[in-house]
Amino acid sequence: MHIKNNVFENIFSMVMEVKEKIKDNIKFKMDIPFFYHRKNIELVYNESQVAKIKANFVLDNNAQLFVNQWLKSLPFPVEHASNISRLVNLKYCKLYGMKSYDSHVFI
Questions:
Q1: What angle do CA 96, 99, 103 make, to 5 degrees?
Q2: Beta-carbon contacts of residue 41 (< 8 Å; ≥ 6 apart)
Q3: Rounded CA separation 43/63 (Å)
Q4: Spatial distance between the Cα atoms of 86 and 72, rounded to a whole number of angstroms
Q5: Distance of CA 18 to CAs 22, 39, 53, Å?
Q6: What digits encode the pLDDT tens for the residues 79-93?
Q7: What number of other Cβ atoms are within 10 A of residue 31's Cβ?
Q8: How many Cβ atoms from other residues are within 10 Å of residue 68's Cβ?
Q9: Which residues contact 103 (CB under 8 A, 6 or more apart)?
Q10: Which of 2, 10, 41, 74 has its CA 20 to 30 A from that of 50?
Q11: Would you say 68 and 90 are in contact if contact means Cβ atoms under 8 Å apart?
Q12: CA dist., res. 43 & res. 51, Å (int)
């Protein structure tokens, strides 16, 4: 049951680009040319800056806000799931304190 929660949390964090939970960092991007041949996800070197290209499946800020607003307004029957709207923080576009049963219902 906790495996479902972990899988859901990892996929949701990756799509919503939660900084604390994703593994897509600069060190990983520097290793991509050595192990993979994917030019669309490598680092981009400008004059004095290094830019990290977002993956195709990552939502932009407007889409993240839309998903979180939808979750905030999502009603559930009484005693079916905890109130997921309590778990949504619109200011930071994050979900907090989701239990394994909540993620199961969400899936």
A1: 95
A2: 29, 32, 53, 55
A3: 24
A4: 7
A5: 6, 24, 16
A6: 666 677 788 888 877
A7: 9
A8: 19
A9: 4, 5, 8, 9
A10: 10
A11: yes
A12: 6
Instruction: Return the structure tokens found at 101.
Output: 């049963």
For residue 23, which amino acid is it? K
Longest Cα–Cα distance of the chain, Å, equals 57
Residue type, 14: M
DSSP the chain: -HHHHHHHHHHHHHHHT-TTT----HHHHHHHHHH---GGGSEEE-SS-EEEPPPTTS--HHHHHHHHHHHHT----TTTS--HHHHEETTTTEE-S--HHHHHHH-
